[in-house]
Design brief:
Elements: E1 3-10, E2 17-24, H1 31-48, E3 53-55, H2 68-74, H3 81-93, E4 96-103, E5 111-117, E6 123-128, H4 134-140
Parallel strand pairs: 2-3, 3-4
Antiparallel strand pairs: 1-2, 4-5, 5-6
Length: 153
């Protein structure tokens, strides 16, 4: 069961409040479908609390310390199966979702990526980790040289 943190963040416009739900949880070891089912359950809980955006941990879709071969096996395009499933969940619960996943890299090891999907299921931003820390990161992932994603939500 995930642990929850709720936070109200005020933007520069006082009337604009975003209610964040932070899901601090360990992904399952049963692959993308199992983690997508757990994401759906967490989205249901966050939506019941009227959250605007639910944030998941790094590499939530696949698990983090799974080895280079498994990370490569589970890697997907930014618009792949996991993205389609997350988009459907976002629409179903009228909830923005931010999740980590292994992104396919045709030039080598996958990227450690995070993707933001809005309430309508549209992909708004995708970020590939640029600084890989330690042997684990470096053995499983490629570093990106792209700048951080900037977006409006």
């Amino acid at each position: 069961m995930p642990s929850w943190a709720r936070s109200r963040c005020r933007t520069e416009q006082e009337a604009s409040i975003i209610l964040l739900a932070l899901c601090q949880c360990t992904p399952g070891t049963d692959g993308l479908d199992g983690n997508l089912a757990r994401l759906r359950a967490a989205a249901r809980q966050a939506a019941a609390q009227q959250a605007d955006l639910l944030v998941f941990p790094e590499m939530y879709a696949s698990g983090y310390n799974i080895g280079a071969a498994r990370a490569a096996e589970l890697a997907q395009d930014a618009d792949g199966q996991i993205a389609a499933g997350v988009a459907q969940i976002a629409r179903e619960f009228d909830l923005g979702l931010l999740y980590g996943y292994p992104e396919r890299n045709p030039a080598g090891k996958p990227y450690n990526s995070v993707q933001l999907v809005d309430r309508q299921g549209r992909r708004r931003a995708n970020y590939r980790k640029t600084h890989l820390y330690g042997v684990l990161d470096q053995s499983q992932f490629s570093a990106s040289d792209e700048p951080p994603a900037v977006f409006e939500l």
